Amino acid sequence: MNQRPPSPSTQRSPKPNPPAARHWSLGISLVFVALLSLFWWIPRRNPNPSPTATLQQTESPSPPPSSPRTGETPGSTGRLSQAPGLEPGRKVDDEIARILRGDFITNIYTLSSNTTMVEEGQYPPIFRKFGTEEFEELAKVACEGNLKRDPSAAEYQEILKDHPAARDSGRIHSGIYLLLCMGGNIRDRYNVQGGMKLAREEELDAAMKIADPELREKELRSIRWFADNEIAMDRLKQQAQIDRTRRLLEYLYGDMPKAVFQRLLSIEPAQGPDRIPDP
Amino acid sequence: MNKHPPILWISSAILSIIAVAVWRLTPPADRSVTEPDRTPVTGPTDAAQRAMHKPSEVIHPRKRVTMRGEIAGRGPMLISEESESGVITNTYEVSPAKFIVRVVSPHPMDLRLGSLDYETAAKADFERHVAMETNLLEIKAILEDFPKATDSQRLYSGIREVYATRARMRQLRDERFKNSDRVIRLYNEGDEGNVSLTEAQRQKLNDEATKLSEEVGTMLSLDYRDAGPRLEQRLTRLYGELPKAVYQRLMSVEIYEPAEPLQAP
Questions:
Q1: Which end of chain B is flanked by fewer CB atoms within 10 Å, N or C?
Q2: Could you tell me which chain B residue has the CA closest to the CA of A199?
Q3: Residues 254-273 (A) with a CB less than 8 A from some CB of B
Q4: In this prediction, does ipTM exceed 0.90?
Q5: Whole-prediction pTM value?
Q6: How far is A182 from chain B (nearest CA, A)?
Q7: Domain definitions of chain B by residue range
């Protein structure tokens, strides 16, 4: 058997690329990699986020139905100042800063050009320690009973734990305490408004007994006007309290998305917390 | 050929870039979820009918048990059952020995929840009241955050449900307050200090006060507690599901005036 000599290779050895072509290839490759990286880093659009995720991120576009602060007051939210407590760098509005300093806060409620009410009040002195570890410890003790007995308090805890800023703050009980206080305040306001409605009905019944039709109509109109204004004013006060609570929670946790606050607001606790004793 | 990089290589690179760009910049396969639902609003299967067949609703979709106390089997209780025809039977256990049964015939429009008629009427109702009851916008905003509601073509039906429930809850709260006030007045009137009353009159006043407090007060409290779960059930029937967070947000909205019955379109 004759061994055939190896045939010469039909493949020619590739010619080395000239330097210009090599640079061109390198440039194209770099552009390719850069574009690929660019598109890779763009976050992918998610058309159907989970409802919970949406709740955490979105703010409803609609404005609140009525703003309790209609005038510039010493406690208005327009200016920011440095607050004592939680973080030296955290900015809070003037009203919250005043609460944390133990100062009086003033609210002016205006229903119409000729109906204005000025309210001045002060938070308990213990709120000077709001946001501190000491307050958290005291709040924990004060809320202990509520957390054991009232599922609403446990619901507050659950919602706050769903909110990363609250969960990681180490101040969950301070928030629960504040919310239980707000819940009690809202309940009181409902009772006050219920009383006002009842009084209005009684006054209207009494006015119906006026014999003179013209005088009766005038009296009925006047009773309705005063009662409606009184109730509307009380609702503004209630809204102001709710708004203040939200800003105190914002101070406590750094942020308080509207969706999370709405969830908290839906809870109706059976009773308020044990009061934290003042220092 | 040797002077330039291969055309094939460049084409592949460009195609790869385009593919990655398309992949990153467009929504995933279920893109239809974000787009408006273009299925006709009318049709043989309306939202309610579709929701009827959800497996999650198999367990008592029309029955609720509400307790006044927190421990099951203790204290006043309300068992509310809705028949297929829409008639609601409320059984109140006001005390261990006393049961009160109340049968409620719903408003005809209530039975149409999920239909186009209901949606049309609900939208008209929304437009009629939104200027005065501005918190209706808040309800709308919350439901618009919930894809199942926006995709269902029954957004206004949901708004109407929340509106009616929150209005009813306010009304029940006011009635409860009024009832408590009446109880206090009757007890005060029948107080032993009131010498002008005979023993029988005093007893009558006290009995009336007790009845108002135990029966009427308890029923009002149970109705108030039941209103939220009823809303949850109806919205679940409407949209197929209702996340707890969405329900809680909806329950935070205040409605100040009573809601009028829905007018048929």
A1: N
A2: B178
A3: 259, 262-267
A4: no
A5: 0.72
A6: 13
A7: 47-250
